[in-house]
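Hi R.,

Here's the chain you asked about this morning:
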Amino acid sequence: MKAITKQKGLAEIERLLEKESSVFLVGCGTCATMCHTGGKDEVLEMARRLVDLGKTITGSVVIPTVCDAQDREAVSENVKAIDEADCILVMACAYGVQTLALYTDKPVYPALDTLFMGQEMSPGVFSEVCVQCGECVLGWTGGICPITACPKGLLNGPCGGAKNGKCEVSSARDCAWEVIYERLSQQGKLDNLRKRRSLRNFSASTQPGVYLLDGKDGDLK
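And the predicted structure, written out as tokens:
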């Protein structure tokens, strides 16, 4: 699973940094590098653009993964350049931005928009596969998630708008429920679609999400 991102427009970044004169840049060596939104080349290009806007770049680093405790080490190793900066511009997903903010008192700004958590289906093509809804239905839909595969997120079967196996939202997309039907048919499990199921429990995914494990039995508290 990767965080799929796109770069914010330079005008928006300029507005974010309007009151900041000097910037330290942080890139991500994993997801953002793969998406070509925050790897080494993109960090260097962003530095050039910010210099053209009159900003001073005090330094930069591409952390292997910005969304974990490696941020602490990166901040420590670059403490002088970070101290000289008014702020930090992070070219990583929202997870990375929030994680880095835990380890510095400097203002931290995102240079990217996080689109979704996805999977590379073919070179350069990424597809959303999970929205962490808190109540997984893959066991009865043949391993295909209707929430992400269907543009309408329908859980009760096709909407009736599909034509020739394609979704009415986009003719380039297969109808998710027709794909689910074909998969279950191949597996001899079409009876899954005949079973009465309870309504989706929307409270299973809480905001903000907190998961506490009991050390004895692992029950959610």
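Residues 216-221 have pLDDT under 50 and may be disordered.

Let me know if you need anything else.
M.
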